[in-house]
Design brief:
- This protein is mainly alpha-helical and 458 residues long.
- It is built from 20 helices and 4 strands.
- Strands 1-2 form a two-stranded antiparallel sheet. Strands 3-4 form a two-stranded antiparallel sheet.
- A hairpin with a 2-residue loop joins strand 1 and strand 2.
- It is globular.
- The two termini are 28 Å apart.
Length: 458
C-alpha cells in the first residue's frame, strides 16, 4: 500500500505493526475476560466483570467507580463538552431514580445511581466512531477506554479475589508472620497503637484506606489537566501505573496466598474470617509464636490478597506522581502514603513484609513503564532487572527462610529494609538522570519536527 504526498510516493505500511499489536492485545484481553467470566460463574455462580458492567446499564450500580471513570474520560473534552457530559449523566440518573421509585424497586444503600455515567461513556464512544475522524477520534476513544478500564479493572479485581478464595484453600500466613519477627512484628505494634489512639484517628485512617481510589483520581485529573488543550496525553501518568499494578498483583496472590494478621491470628473483619479459622486469637496483643510454619486451611470466602500489599503499591504510586505537582499535592501525596501504611498495619490487613514487597513492586513497575516510554537502555534494563530480582528474593525468603529470619532479626531486619532502600535509591537516582536529560535541549541531529513533538503513549 502506498500513499502519494507532494508528488512523491511513500510507504504507508509503517502503521501495520502497531495495528497488529493493538489487535493482538485486544484479542488477548477479550480472551482473558471470557475466561474470567467462566471462572467466576464456576467458582461463585456470580456474573463476571463484563456481564456485571452490562447489567449496570439498567440495574442500580455503585456510583463511585462509574463517576470516577467518567471524570477521567472528560479530560479529553472541552469545558463545554464536560458540562454537557456531566449534565447528561445526572439527567439520566434522575430518570432511573424516578423509575425505580415509581415501581418501588429495592436497591442496596450504596447502589443508588450511576447508570448515567456509564451511558455517557458509551455514548462518547459511539460519537468517536461515527462523528470524529483521525486524531480526534483516537483521542476520544483513548479517553473512553481509560474511563471504562478503571471501571472494568475494579470489577476484575473483585473477580480475582473471589477466585483466590475458592482456588487456594490453604494460606501461607504463618510463613509471613514468622518472617515478620525480623521487622519487629509491625502489624502487632501498629494495632496496639491504633487501639490506644481513639476513635478519631481510627475513623480518619479508615476513610483514607477506603478512599484510595478517589484520591488517585484527584491526582490523575491534575496530571491530565492539559489533555483537552494539547489534544494529546502525556507520555506517562498515574492511571497507567494503577492499571498495571492491578493487573499484575492478583497473579502473585495466586502464587503466594495470604489473608492477613486480623484473619489468620484474629477474629476476622468485614464479614469474613473468624476465630474458628485462625491459627490462634493473638492479634494485636500477643505476637505469634516462633514455631515452624506450615500452610493452614482457611475459609472459602476471605480473599488471599496480602502479598504484596497493593494498597501500599497504589499509595506509593500516588506519592511518586505527586512529586512534580504543586505543594498542596505533594503534601497530600505524602499524607496519603503515611496514612495508608498506618491503616494497612493498624487494622491488621497486612504484615510488615507485605509492605516492603509492595514498595519494591511499585517502583519496578513504574521504572518499566517509564523505560517503555523513553526507550530501553542499559540504565533502564539494570533498574528494572534489579527491582524484579529484589522482589523475587523477598517473596522467596518469606516462603523458604522465615525461621532463619525470625531467629536472626538483627541481621535479616536491616537486610530487608536495606534491600527496599536500595531499590528506592536506584529508582530516584536513575529516573532523576532521565528527567535531567529530558529537560535539556534535544539532540541537534534530530529533525526539527521530531524534536518539537514526541509521540504520545497511553
Amino acid at each position: 500500500m502506498f500513499s502519494r504526498t507532494n508528488g512523491t510516493v511513500r510507504l504507508a505500511a509503517w502503521r501495520r505493526p502497531r495495528t497488529v499489536l493493538w489487535a493482538a492485545a485486544g484479542a488477548v484481553a477479550l480472551g482473558f475476560f471470557i475466561a474470567l467470566e467462566i471462572a467466576t460463574r464456576h467458582y461463585g455462580d456470580v456474573p463476571g466483570p463484563l456481564t456485571d458492567l452490562a447489567g449496570e446499564l439498567v440495574l442500580a450500580p455503585q456510583p463511585g467507580p462509574l463517576y470516577c471513570g467518567l471524570a477521567v474520560m472528560t479530560v479529553v473534552l472541552t469545558w463545554r463538552e464536560r458540562a454537557v457530559a456531566i449534565g447528561t449523566a445526572i439527567g439520566i440518573d434522575l430518570v432511573f431514580i424516578l423509575a425505580r421509585w415509581a415501581v418501588d424497586a429495592e436497591t442496596p444503600a450504596d447502589h443508588f445511581f450511576g447508570n448515567g455515567a456509564l451511558w455517557v461513556m458509551l455514548g462518547c464512544a459511539y460519537i468517536a466512531v461515527t462523528r470524529r475522524t483521525g486524531r480526534e477520534r483516537a483521542l476520544l476513544l483513548k479517553g473512553v477506554a481509560l474511563g471504562l478500564l478503571l471501571v472494568v479493572g475494579r470489577k476484575t479485581s473483585y473477580a480475582w479475589l473471589l477466585i483466590t478464595s475458592k482456588t487456594r484453600p490453604t494460606v501461607l500466613d504463618q510463613y509471613v508472620a514468622t518472617a515478620d519477627h525480623a521487622l519487629g512484628n509491625p502489624s502487632w505494634v501498629a494495632g496496639r497503637v491504633l487501639d490506644a489512639s481513639g476513635p478519631v484517628v481510627t475513623h480518619l485512617l479508615d476513610f483514607v484506606y477506603a478512599q484510595l481510589a478517589a484520591a488517585a483520581i484527584v491526582f490523575a485529573l491534575y496530571q491530565l489537566r492539559h489533555v483537552a488543550a494539547e489534544r494529546r496525553f502525556p507520555r506517562h501518568h498515574l492511571v497507567r501505573t494503577f492499571l498495571v499494578i492491578g493487573l499484575l498483583g492478583p497473579g502473585i496472590y495466586m502464587i503466594f496466598p495470604v489473608v492477613g494478621p486480623i484473619f489468620a491470628y484474629g477474629p476476622g473483619t468485614s464479614g469474613t474470617g473468624g476465630v474458628e479459622f485462625a491459627a490462634a486469637n493473638l492479634w494485636p496483643h500477643t505476637p505469634p509464636p516462633l514455631d515452624a510454619p506450615h500452610p493452614m486451611p482457611y475459609d472459602a470466602f476471605t480473599p488471599r490478597n496480602c502479598m504484596p500489599s497493593l494498597h501500599t503499591a497504589w499509595a506509593t504510586a500516588i506519592f511518586i506522581h505527586s512529586r512534580k505537582g504543586p505543594r498542596v499535592l505533594r503534601y497530600a501525596g505524602t499524607f496519603w502514603l503515611i496514612a495508608t501504611l498506618s491503616a494497612t498495619l493498624g487494622f491488621g490487613y497486612h504484615y510488615g513484609a507485605d509492605l516492603v514487597a509492595g514498595v519494591v513492586f511499585t517502583l519496578t513497575i513504574e521504572a518499566a513503564l517509564r523505560a517503555y516510554d523513553r526507550g530501553w537502555d542499559r540504565s533502564a534494563t539494570r533498574l528494572v532487572s534489579y527491582g524484579a530480582a529484589v522482589f523475587v528474593a523477598l517473596v522467596t525468603s518469606y516462603r523458604y527462610l522465615p525461621v532463619q529470619m525470625a531467629a536472626h532479626p538483627w541481621f535479616f531486619g536491616p537486610l530487608l529494609v536495606l534491600a527496599m532502600a536500595s531499590v528506592i535509591y536506584g529508582y530516584v537516582r536513575t529516573t532523576g538522570r532521565w528527567d535531567r536529560k529530558s529537560d535539556g535541549p534535544p539532540p541537534a541531529h534530530l529533525p526539527q519536527q521530531r524534536r518539537e513533538s514526541q509521540p504520545e503513549r497511553v
